[in-house]
Amino acid sequence: MFLEIKSIEKYYGTGENRTKVLKGITTGVEKGKICVLLGPSGSGKSTLLNIIGGIEKADGGSISIDGSKIEDMNEKQLSLYRRNHLGYVFQFYNLIPNLTVKENIEVGAFLSKNPLDTDELLHTLGLWEHKDKVPSQLSGGQQQRTSIGRAIVKNPDILLCDEPTGALDYKTSKDILKLIETINQKYGNTVIIVTHNDAIKLMADKVIKLRDGNIRKEYENTEKVNAE
Ligand code: ADP
Ligand code: ADP
Q: How far apart are CA 119 and CA 153, in angstroms?
């Protein structure tokens, strides 16, 4: 298994307020697949994503990616892991306001070993005509496309998306999901999408449902359909 998640536990708070938000998560994702992490708000989805992303540390258990255990990495190794292997897409884009679309995307390529060609990527993203605009001149969908570009330009093994359509209308959300799918097919990145939007499971190879820090249900989606 490319991504192996074993008995992951996470606590927040101290003393009386100490609560276990991940209660021993064990699962895995194969290379190049799209995995959707579903569950109600507060079920632990973002926490799990952030642990996979090396942003938060688990209190127990193990995560290995292509054989490397992230809990064994020191800070320097973790930052290299994030830089070379991971792309992150957030609900609210987090673009740099005074940089253009093209420059925001190039930020993602900074220090990367194997960056994609920015101009080709701008075309794939449908942003070529907008490459010299700054974020305030863009629609929400275009801002999210830019943020996907910044995440993907280093050609990461894993693309982590935290509610990528959470701030977008129905039609724009569909366009963004379609784009994520196109990127997955073109570059072969393993994709993990955290969402509370049940409809997104249709495009997934694997669906994992969390509730109260446990896996409630998981399955391979044999009826996967293309996002449209
Ligand atoms: P989801 O992404 O499914 O909405 P989260 O992973 O964000 O769930 O949160 C899981 C639980 O952990 C929630 O009860 C939330 O309140 C709590 N939590 C998340 N982040 C923190 C934090 N930094 N400090 C304390 N509690 C947190
Ligand atoms: P999309 O292609 O994401 O559906 P729209 O059709 O909503 O974009 O927008 C068309 C054009 O209007 C865009 O090229 C963008 O420059 C501009 N635009 C849209 N929304 C905004 C906004 N909130 N602020 C500034 N410009 C916007």
A: 10
Q: Please tell me the number of the ligand nearest to residue 51's CA.
A: 1
ipTM: 0.70
Q: What is the pTM of this model?
A: 0.88
DSSP state of 191: E
Tokens 């800070």 — which residue?
75
Report CA Rg, the chain: 17
3-state secondary structure of 162: strand
Binning pLDDT at 50, 70 and 90, where does residue 225 land?
Answer: confident
47 Cβ inside 6 Å of ligand 1: yes
Alpha helix ranges (H) inside 110-210: 118-124, 140-152, 170-187
Query: How distant, in Å, are the alpha carbons of 34, 45, 50, 136 from that of 183?
Result: 11, 23, 22, 25
Ligand 1 binding pocket includes 21 (Cβ within 6 Å): yes
Instruction: Give the number of residues written for the chain.
Output: 228
